[in-house]
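for the record, two folds in this file. i put them one after another cuz i was lazy. first one right below, seq on top, structure tokens after. the second one comes after a little note so u can tell where it starts
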Amino acid sequence: MMMVSIVGQSLAHSLAQPLPDGGVLVAGARCRWRNGAAECNAAIYDAAGELLREGVLGDGIADVQTTPSGDIWVSYFDEGVYGNFGWGEADSPAPIGSPGLIRFRSDLDIAWRYPYDSKFGAISDCYALNAVGEEACAYYYTDFPIVRIGADAVAGWSTELHGAR
């Protein structure tokens, strides 16, 4: 097992995921919008623990999963979808996490957003996320389907479940 030492990391409620070539993504679950800008809440480190880049993944992060290619799947809970900490107010942008599930590239730019008009319904709060290979599966509130995203296409199954179990 390889260990990466990171010095001076200050992201609150951090989630960490491995990246190709031994790097590490550290993401803070919370991110404020204030004074016309977002706080950085994502950092990518190389295998030696050196900071390579910082960026913004948005507020209200429920989970983060990385893929073998270095893509980053991020799911959001309700505050990330509907807004908090300055996001979604009259003088600020809509929350980054408003789709409920986003795939970012390794440069922290958005590659794909869950479609609001999905036949499985919109995401209000993503309860579960798992990435296998380059694909992701999610389970979410409101209608509690299980969806699988691969090649930017959404497939899924309705369930008779109603909430977390």
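(here's the note) second protein begins now
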Amino acid sequence: MRRRLPHLSRIVSALLLFGVTAVDAQLETLEAERAKNFGIAHLEQEQPNDAAEMFRTVIDLAPEEALGYANLAATFLRLSQVDSALHWLDQANVVALRDPRIYYLKSEAYGAASRWGEALDALNRAIAISPDDAILRFARFRTIQSLGDDLLRAVATEDIARLVALVPENPVVRVKHAKERSEAGDFSGARGSYTVLKPLLEDAGVQPRVVTLVERGLDSENSTLAVR
């Protein structure tokens, strides 16, 4: 089964992160900076063809910066053109071999083509460069779940445990951690995340039905996680 392409908001988030790096690196011209901003705006408005034109302009004006290549690659992902996306990410690697965000976008491209092994390899490289990046850790955890390989369970366990340390008040992380601990038979660990999760859901105004499910999890030491 072919995986659905990444949602626009996830790609735009990656682009905005890239944009911060580009500003810090000081693009050579205001024209390049303006083209980058227009490109991101076009993506936010779901106009990938116009975005691609802007990012090609960035490449022409600042060929030594990875930003233009990586953002053009993300645009091709929106157009369901995975091979073109991977081509431009390879170009980004030429000028920025150790930027973990490039490998993250590669993992998204491979995942869109259900090439899970290559997606995992890209994330392993990214995490080797930036081991405390929560986005990368969660992406690898999710990718291992898609692979369904029991041999990688220890890596997934490491990732979700690290995520709890990095973003302890993230409800999604707490749900995933509680489920993973419950399935591993660590009901005490699962209960710990349940306990943290309930007030987080209440503070976020989550529907009472969901909070009730969490309460039921708290009441049962040996239950698997009900909230998916």
